[in-house]
Amino acid sequence: MGTALPLVVVSVAYHSQSPLTSLAKDLARQTHPPQRWVVVDNAPELAPLDPTALRAVLGTVPLQLVLGRQGWGFAAGCNAAFDALDQWGYRGWIWLLNPDVSLPAGNELESLQQLLQDQDPSALLGTAVRDAAGELEASGGWIDSGFNFRRRRIKEQHAQLKPEPLAVDWLSGCSLILSPSVHQPPARFDSGYPLYYEDMDLCRRLQAAGSPVLWLPQPVLGHQRGEGSSTPSSRRLELSTRSYCRYLRLHCSGWVRALRLVRLVARAVLSLAFQPQKGRAVLRGIRVCD
Questions:
Q1: Which 3 state secondary structure label does DSSP give 251?
Q2: Helices (H), 17-163
Q3: Residues carrying CATH 3.90.550.10, the chain
């Protein structure tokens, strides 16, 4: 067994004190704790995090709080953490973990560090993630050229593979590992994605530049979906629609983009009669998409 590689955990938080406290407990009991836990607070005005409460359960794991801006998305929060780590002189692997994930076994970081010793430093890696019911989440998958470009996703059969990584086209930002400083220019998310699709965009851009994109059946994380933030549903729908439209514009062919936008607008117009708040949120997202 080689020497454990440096590994920093980054979590982007928005109204997430409770799930972060649970994650702090999991990090504290790891057999190989992270070198540092960087938490980006994207709600510093309305619901500022209490770092003292987190440190109380973290034990010896150093906590670094980065103040984001109210309402920043996941992409902007991650970029702020990457910039801060650059300023501190850190150049190693970073594990992005949602505030609402869990590390149930207690040796997830040790297992990951062992696997990273054999990986291309430019690689992006994701891990298996299971929801509260024990079902495997679609934490990665493959991109096709047609209308259903994202249909092929990680399924239970892939979780039964040996620990060797599985080559995919995209990974979920819920549990994503990369070393940003290895890339030139240093890898950053596109902050034009306010909610969702920023992880898929990053994977596709770095893969096009030659970086492997790999999914790991081990370690396995838990995920209490929906407990990571308290953004109102209509606002989330508007932001996710903006991200979806941006992804279509940047990564899909003209006919795929046109057909999907027509379908999106048609569904939103129909929703106005029965779910007007939902329909208006989607139409706002389409209108302001850059």
A1: helix
A2: 17-28, 51-58, 74-87, 108-116, 156-159
A3: 7-223
Q: Residues with Cβ < 8 Å from 263, sequence gap 6 or more?
A: none
Give the residue from 59, 269, 251 showing the smallest Cα distance to 150.
Answer: 251
User: pTM of the prediction?
Assistant: 0.94
Give the pLDDT confidence score for residue 256 in this predicted structure. Answer: 94
Q: Residues 113-159: pLDDT tens digits? A: 999 999 999 999 999 999 999 999 989 999 998 898 989 999 999 88
The dihedral over CA atoms of 241, 242, 247, 248, expressed in degrees to the nearest 10, equals 70
The whole-angstrom separation of Cα 244 and Cα 161 is 31
What pLDDT is attached to residue 228? Answer: 44
Q: Which helix H or strand E contains 283, and what residues bound it?
A: helix 276-287
Residue 211 half-sphere exposure, CB side, CA atoms within 13 Å? 25
DSSP code at position 46: T
C-alpha to C-alpha distance for 61 and 66, rounded to whole angstroms: 16
CATH classification for the domain delimited by 7-223, as one of 3.40.50.2300, 1.10.357.10, 3.40.50.720, 3.90.550.10: 3.90.550.10
Burial class (CB in 10 A: 0-12, 13-18, 19+), 174: buried
**What number of residues does the chain have?**
290
Percent above pLDDT 70 for the chain: 96
Contact 209, 152 (CB under 8 A): no
258 CB contacts (<8 Å, ≥6 apart)?
A: none
pLDDT at residue 232 is higher than 70: no
